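Design request, tokens follow.
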């Protein structure tokens, strides 16, 4: 028994030592492991509850360049990519815990009772600055390399997952006053898409991202961006689907349905097809066209089987018409689905984050070459 207990203690120690947390391991140690292909353990360390992302950012700023240079000229590009991709992984791990702080300033009031509300002050937290650290690293070369394009697409995926348009295009509340969230320290804006678009002016996903970032607050700009892309073979379908969603929010059901129909004719992407059909169903429901709505929900479920949003909507319609057995069958099938499908409606706001697994896989494969 003693020998067995000793064996368990040694085994536990070995397993724990191979999983050093991001708090106990130095940034250079994590970079070494990432460069060696230990991607999953490093991401696990970056996702731990006790991670200090500000310390990771400080470590990269302090030691990152020296770590890159330590491999010599022949390894420089590989180490740059590893460091920049590590920064992305850290940003993605931390972005739903901390992103930015917009601090409201106290009112300034005169003796006559008149008050002025100063604009807010923006403070970026570590995750967005990690993206920018990697972005600056990738932009050191005058001419973008093919792998930088993939890195920038991955960076866009991480940034859009934050659901913060201001990081991509600047303050979307500009001119609306401090009560809306407008900031005063515009010199601290990042405007990530501005320098990415300068590097890749013909990349359609970056052009589409301009529209998505403006969709909520600058609808005229978003409309212009979507319509400019409506015939593009790669992104035209998604542009029209998002245009239709914007029109649906504005109550223009007929125009929205036309956009959704056009979106389906421009793409074979199940994500876009699902959303075009799902949003079409919502437009039909608003118009009281329940048979058309049910058919559209069925179409969405066919594009992404067992997706929760369409399945629940179909079950609700079945219950409304007294088809309890059908509703139960739909929900049972959804709950039993393995693997659980990613629901495009739930992922709508995260845009290109759906490409993250493929993009980071490509970057990791390049690091291992």
């Amino acid at each position: 028994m003693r020998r067995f207990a000793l064996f368990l203690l040694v085994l536990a120690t070995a397993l724990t030592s191979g999983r050093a947390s991001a708090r106990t391991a130095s940034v250079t140690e994590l970079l070494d492991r990432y460069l060696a292909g230990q991607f999953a353990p490093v991401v696990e360390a970056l996702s731990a509850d006790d991670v200090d992302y500000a310390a990771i950012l400080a470590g990269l700023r302090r030691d990152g360049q020296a770590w890159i240079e330590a491999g010599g000229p022949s390894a420089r590009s590989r180490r740059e990519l590893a460091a920049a991709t590590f920064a992305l992984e850290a940003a993605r791990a931390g972005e739903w815990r901390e992103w930015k702080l917009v601090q409201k300033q106290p009112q300034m009031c005169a003796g006559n009772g008149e008050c002025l509300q100063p604009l807010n002050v923006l403070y970026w937290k570590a995750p967005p600055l990690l993206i920018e650290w990697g972005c600056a690293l990738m932009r050191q070369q005058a001419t973008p390399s093919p792998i930088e394009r993939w890195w920038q697409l991955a960076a866009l995926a991480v940034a859009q997952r934050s659901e913060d348009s201001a990081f991509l295009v600047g303050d979307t509340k500009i001119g609306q006053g401090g009560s809306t969230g407008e900031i005063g320290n515009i010199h601290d804006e990042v405007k990530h898409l501005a320098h990415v678009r300068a590097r890749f002016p013909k990349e359609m996903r970056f052009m589409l991202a301009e529209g998505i970032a403006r969709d909520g607050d600058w609808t005229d700009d978003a409309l212009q961006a979507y319509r400019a892309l409506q015939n593009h073979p790669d992104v035209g379908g998604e542009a029209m689907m998002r245009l239709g969603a914007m029109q649906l929010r504005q109550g223009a059901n007929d125009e929205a349905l036309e956009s959704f129909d056009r979106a389906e004719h421009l793409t074979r992407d199940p994500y876009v097809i699902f959303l075009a059909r799902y949003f079409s169903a919502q437009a039909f429901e608003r118009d009281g066209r329940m048979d058309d709505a049910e058919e559209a929900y069925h179409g969405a479920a066919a594009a992404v089987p067992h997706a929760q949003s369409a399945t629940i909507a179909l079950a609700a319609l079945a219950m409304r018409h007294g088809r309890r057995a059908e509703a139960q069958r739909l929900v049972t099938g959804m709950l039993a689905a393995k693997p659980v499908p990613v629901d495009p409606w739930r992922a709508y706001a995260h845009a290109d984050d759906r490409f993250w697994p493929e993009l980071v896989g490509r970057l990791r494969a390049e690091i291992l070459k």
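Comment from the thread starter after seeing the answer: thanks! The longest helix spans residues 76-94.
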